[in-house]
Design goal:
The complex is a heterodimer of chains A (about 110) and B (about 110). In chain A, about 0% of the residues lie in helices and about 50% in strands. Chain A is mostly beta strands and about 110 residues long. Chain A is globular, with a radius of gyration of 13 Å. The termini of chain A are far apart. Chain B has about 110 residues and is mainly beta. Helix content of chain B is about 0%, strand content about 60%. Chain B contains no helices and eleven strands. Chain B has strands at about 1-5, 10-15, 20-25, 30-40, 45-50, 55-60, 65-70, 75-80, 85-95, 100-105, 105-110. In chain B, strand 4 (about 30-40) and strand 5 form a beta hairpin. Classes of the chains: A mainly beta (about 110), B mainly beta (about 110). The interface of A and B includes residues 33, 39, 40, 43 and 95 of A.
Chain lengths: ~110, ~110
């Protein structure tokens, strides 16, 4: 299945953070979502065959990478208090296929 | 543009009773519709999906959902609730061929013994 690391993370405002995701075997697409407390997940962006393939309403300080082994990372610069959330990674066989989610990384910004 | 509305942020049912979680969607293109479940401190697990084949979709754990285009609805049902069904349920929509999901705000299901 999809794995994410770390499980929990605490940062202070202004810092930078990197979250990691290993996609399900054979999947070439990774999508990232932000889930604020009490809300549904919101789409950040998707990487398909190493290229960004769609982006939600998030500023450029949210960036990502997809590696040759199809794992992915989400980078957030200049952290703000509102960035505190559960960050979910999902992988799929192709860009428009069903997405399978990892357990998430809970980020707390103080 | 796509969006979903989940009616009822919190639903309580007795063990053995019918579960009905409501979802209405809005989509400018033929939609794909999904129900996911989230247990405490966990990620999302796919329950079922509609992709324009049969309008009645059967999923895991005894859940099913019916796509009703005339009502723009995709309600989730289960004939008999079990204690293990207590969780947060999210309805989501994507456009045909789209690469991102739009989620509702979720419905927390409580099962009363």
């Amino acid at each position: 299945g999809v794995t994410q690391s770390p499980t929990h993370l605490i940062k202070t405002r202004g810092q930078q953070v990197t979250l990691r995701c290993s996609s399900q075997s054979g999947h070439n697409t990774v999508s990232w979502y932000q889930q604020a407390l009490g809300q549904g997940p919101q789409f950040i962006f998707q990487y398909y065959r190493k290229e960004e393939n769609g982006r939600g309403n998030f500023p450029p300080r949210f960036s990502g990478l997809q590696f040759p082994n199809d794992s992915s990372e989400l980078n957030v610069n200049a952290l703000e208090l509102d960035d505190s959330a559960l960050y979910l990674c999902a992988s799929s066989l192709e860009a428009t296929d069903t997405q399978y989610f990892g357990p998430g990384t809970r980020l707390t910004v103080l | 543009a796509q969006s979903v509305t989940q009616l009822g942020s919190h639903v309580s049912v007795s063990e053995g009773a019918l579960v009905l979680l409501r979802c209405n969607y809005s989509s400018s293109v033929p939609p794909y519709l999904f129900w996911y479940v989230q247990y405490p401190n966990q990620g999302l697990q796919l329950l079922l999906k509609y992709t324009s084949a049969a309008t009645l979709v059967k999923g895991i754990n005894g859940f099913e959902a019916e796509f009703k285009k005339s009502e723009t609805s995709f309600h989730l049902t289960k004939p008999s609730a079990h204690m293990s069904d207590a969780a947060e349920y999210f309805c989501a929509v994507s456009g045909t061929g789209a690469n991102n999901l739009f989620f509702g705000t979720g419905t927390r299901l409580t099962v009363i013994p």
